[in-house]
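To illustrate this point, we now present one chain and its tokenised fold:
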Amino acid sequence: MLAVERDQLILKVARRDGRVLTAAVARELGLSEITARRAINALCSSGLLTRVHGGATLPSNGKPERVLGAATGLVVPTSDYYYARVIAGAESMAGRLGTRLVLGVTHYDEGSERDRVRRLVDLGVRGLLLTTSTYEPSGGETGKWLDSVDLPIVLMERSFTYPETSKEYDSVRSDHAFGAALAVRHLSQLGHTSIGLAIREETPTARGLRAGYGQTIQQLGLVEGAPYKALPLIALDPEGTDRALNAFLDECMDTGTKAAIVHVDTHAARLVELAASRGIRVPDDLSVVAYDDEVAAFAMVPLTAVSPPKQAVGAAAMRLLDARLSSSTNDVELPVQHLSLLPSLTVRESTTKYS
């Protein structure tokens, strides 16, 4: 359990019961009493709780006191899978910088997102690390809302700019186009000239993946028009996912395509399973590169995978926000920064030379 998630659960218990007892919350959350006591003490030091014998209570007004400059707000769409590592990176850097994070999770709901941000502003956090529910600038609403937030903001894995916004915002993003290029170049170096692509089109990663894939295919003079398939979300449509992946396998076999890039890991792992059930061997008959590298190593055949720098995104965003706040305090003008961080490639057993 991440420290930011643990602290949010302790505060939830305090709001529910009016107080939090060290021994009881340790049992409820599965913590050691030492860990629970240290977490409660930190929350008391930040003004979110008031220390009493055996635990803590909410401040006397029934609401958390303003945190002022003691904490940084962190608002993300989810706290699992991809963003768990982003949170971990931000948390680690926050500790080095002497601040703590207050987490808000929006589940890709814009109303929830604005409520979480409003709550953090009311608490008096010193600034915000924010991943908006909206993936890309596609209208003025998110931009107008950003402009209305009276706090320093660093965007993570997002970038909104004029004319969607009236001012520029610091941002830190993974360069997914470069990530796709890494995958294509790796397969090309193994001798593959036709490389298929299967991706989750509705994700914020997809645009960069398509752009990097297409550009690198052209640069290297590889086969254009190789098999392409848009994939549904496995959890919502497992049967549809299997149909799409089987159709993609059919196209690869029919066209002699012996290499594929698949986004995300879970889809790539399922592709390997379906291929095996059809007698298609990975990597002998089909080399596969997964994108995300969250669970790629645990596939039936451990998957070569592109790893976006998730923890580095969180850490760099935290460092950038701290620099922004320090510059305003010291009257030093810091230029707005749009940072692009490069993914890496981890080679495992799912790719081999073309034969």
